[in-house]
């Protein structure tokens, strides 16, 4: 997969988010998956932390949404705008079993 500025920024933001969670939890496990289809590339980043708050999940990618003392709530909003500007999508969900969360974004090939 060719590393475009959007791909690189999105991967960096995903890694930053996971590292921030790791600083404030016992979680030290994460995984990055890349899958390709005929027209799209999918990148997923998963962790085994506390997961995403059900209160924040529906508005996670909106401006100024955060439940952290350390963030501004702009990083995921900007990432969403960049991904969408390049014809992609980004979403997140809590993992099955209530352990951790996964962020996924797609971009056209």
Walk me through this protein's architecture.
There is one protein chain. The chain is α+β, with helices and mostly antiparallel strands. It contains two helices and four strands, in the order αββαββ. α1 packs antiparallel against α2. The longest helix has 19 residues, at 5-23.
Give the overall shape, derived from the CA principal axes: globular
Radius of gyration computed on alpha carbons: 13 Å
Number of helices in the DSSP assignment: 2
Bin the helical content.
25-40%
Strand share of the residues? 25-35%
The main pleated sheet reads as:
4 strands, antiparallel
Estimated structural class = alpha+beta
Question: Which keywords apply here?
Answer:
109 residues, 4-stranded antiparallel β-sheet
Short description:
The protein is 28% helix and 27% strand. The protein is α+β, with helices and mostly antiparallel strands.
Draw up the topology in text.
Blueprint: H1 5-23, E1 30-36, E2 40-47, H2 75-85, E3 89-94, E4 101-108
Antiparallel strand pairs: 1-2, 2-4, 3-4
């Amino acid at each position: 997969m060719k590393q475009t500025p959007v791909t690189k920024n999105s991967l960096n933001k995903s890694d930053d988010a996971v590292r921030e969670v790791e600083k404030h939890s016992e979680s030290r496990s994460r995984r990055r998956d890349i899958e390709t289809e005929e027209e799209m590339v999918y990148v997923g980043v998963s962790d085994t932390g506390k997961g995403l708050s059900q209160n924040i999940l529906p508005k996670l990618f909106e401006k100024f949404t955060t439940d952290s003392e350390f963030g501004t709530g702009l990083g995921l909003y900007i990432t969403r705008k960049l991904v969408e500007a390049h014809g992609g999508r980004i979403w997140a969900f809590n993992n099955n079993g209530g352990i951790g969360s996964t962020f996924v974004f797609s971009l056209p090939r």
